[in-house]
Design goal:
Length: about 300
Amino acid sequence: MTTTPTTRRRRDVAVPDGPDIHCDNLVRIYRAEGIEVVALQGLDLEVRSGELVALVGASGSGKSTLLGILSGLDRPSAGLARVAGHDLGTMQRAERLEYRRRTVGFLFQQASANLLPYLTAAENVELPMMLAGVRSRQRSARAHETLEVLGIADCADRRPGQLSGGQQQRVALGVAVANRPRVLLADEPTGELDTRSSDEVFAAIRRANTEFGTTTLVVTHDAHVSEQVARTVGIRDGRTSTEVLRRDAVGADGEVGRVAEEFAVLDRAGRLQLPKAFTTALDLRDRVRLGLEPDHITVRSTREDREEAP
Ligand code: ADP
Ligand code: MG
């Protein structure tokens, strides 16, 4: 291959300390016709450089709203959203344009959102580089390398209409990472694909993450996908509520297996969301009694108080 090692890793040079994605008490309120929808209500999230994180949550929980803000398309109503050192609340027009061109890549559910139908796969991947001022020779070398890493080198000369859904989505991924963005944001990228294509696309996302070092946040409904990542963040009612961490561990039988542990997220203000299954099982609502024990905290129903009340 004719590629130089410099095209291999992401090119962003401003490496700030701290996580690549940092949201602190992030709020987004939509106002339409006198009605307010609080889509994000004090969301906290940190994603370290090079991490691959899945974001899950019911429909309407605020996932797309979060990605819209992180991609620089939308603005927070309050709170902090910082990506690779850029403050997304105060960023001005010129910085925003550069940010969208070089720092973040975006992958949508519909591959067509990233693809021009009359260009070949390789030409589609070269287009964002052209807009970023990359010279012709380097463009074609990097497009070739991109398609190869994503497992679709053989599709280089075909147009989107001549590709399967999974191949199209991988080309769309190639477009998203063409400029080696520091961060990749993907909103249900496998939502419209069958299991096999979905696996191929997700494998390509993982390859981009490891080969290019792209910090990746991927929204998914697909349990199969979220099972393959080390960290899954659950969002509920516009707030991060749970995290599942997965790691390989040696079990009692001596075999190495995948261990998943679920945690509730305690935010900086000390807030915690109790799982609905827990609150309904014990009829916890309105007010609960908290007790501090030497090594844990108890949460009790006040049902007896309610029943005794006249
Ligand atoms: P998700 O992607 O998790 O399904 P969204 O971020 O799309 O959730 O939506 C979160 C909430 O914000 C929902 O209640 C939705 O109806 C509302 N919402 C999203 N976009 C808009 C908008 N442009 N105007 C008004 N409300 C919106
Ligand atoms: Mg959505």
